[in-house]
Design goal:
Elements: H1 2-5, H2 8-14, H3 21-24, H4 29-32, H5 37-43, H6 48-67
Length: 70
């Protein structure tokens, strides 16, 4: 749901990753989905499971956007 992406804290809460709200609360989702594993780790997402979950969701969002352009 792209509407949910507009509210980063709610989006992270829906993914059960709300503990990372302080890191990303000022970000736009368009910036977040460009992050890779190393960048997430550098930002403070130290748990491998959380990074994998985020990266999986980022890929889904990018794929959805690619399929629905135009």
């Amino acid at each position: 749901d792209l509407q949910l992406l507009q509210d980063i804290p709610a989006w992270l809460r829906s993914l059960r990753l709300h503990k990372y709200n302080p890191i990303f609360e000022t970000w736009k989702w368009q910036e977040m989905v460009k992050l890779n594993d190393e960048a997430l780790s550098e930002k403070g997402v130290s748990a491998l499971g959380a990074r994998r979950k985020m990266l999986k969701v980022f890929e889904q969002v990018k794929l959805h956007c690619e399929q629905n352009v135009g």
